[in-house]
From TrEMBL:
The keyword Repeat does not apply. It holds the Pfam family Zincin_1. GO terms for molecular function: peptidase activity. GO terms for biological process: proteolysis. The keyword Protease applies. Keywords: Hydrolase, Protease. It comes from Brevundimonas alba. This is Putative Zn-dependent protease with MMP-like domain.
Amino acid sequence: MNSRWTDQVAPSLDDFARLAREAFDALPEPFRSLAGDVVIRIDDFADDETLAMMEMEDPFELTGLYHGVDVGRRESMGPAAEASRIFLYRRPILDEWCERGDVGLSEIIAHVLIHEIGHHFGLDDHQIHGIEDGAD
């Protein structure tokens, strides 16, 4: 047995926040500026109301969520009533990281964050996946 794992603990919510901030800070301009008003929040899981809204029963299915008015619609509506938020869900991300085993945790966090920033820019899942597939 490999004893180096016996004293390890799972990354905390604060660890995730730090990794998300590092990923955000690494974004190139102008993306960082355009997404600058987004609040990034780390929770262990989505709440029951969010899961119901997303029609999901398993909280491990949702790694991230964008909540707000995307920048394209915001300009025609005036300033947003509240800041847009990106939720990153620690436990589902950790689960994906463990299941994959071929990519670093910070890479998965960055991937989920960038995906949700895509929604902030007004892209839907299909468009985001097309961009991701083109980047591979």
